[in-house]
Amino acid sequence: MITTNLHVMMAKRRIGVGDLAAKVGITPANLSILKNGKAKAIRFSTLDAICRELECQPADLLEYEPGEADDD
Fold it and tell me: Does residue 27 contact residue 21 with C-beta atoms inside 8 Å?
C-alpha cells in the first residue's frame, strides 16, 4: 500500500492547506484528500508542483508499506 507523508512535509515547511493549494493550483479539498491519505491517484503534474513548492522529492511524500492494497 502507498501512504502519504504530505502532512509531515507541510508541518516541516509550516504551510497550511489553503496556502499550498493556491500555490499548487488545486482546491483545498483535493489537497486535503491527498494530505489525509484518501486519494486513489495523483497526477505527476500535481506531484511535481507540490514537490516544487515544498522543496522536496516525491520519496519525501510517498511511502510503500507492504500489505494488502485498499480496493475501496
Answer: yes
Strand partners of residue 63? 3
Using left for φ > 0, alpha for ψ between -120 and 50, and beta otherwise, residue 55 falls in left
What's the pTM value of the predicted model, to 2 decimals?
A: 0.87
pLDDT tens string 8-36: 999 999 999 999 999 999 999 999 999 99
Can you tell me the distance from the alpha carbon of 22 to that of 65, in angstroms, rounded to the nearest whole number? 30
The CATH code that applies to domain 2-64 is 1.10.260.40
What's the rounded Cα separation, in Å, for the pair 49 and 54? Answer: 9
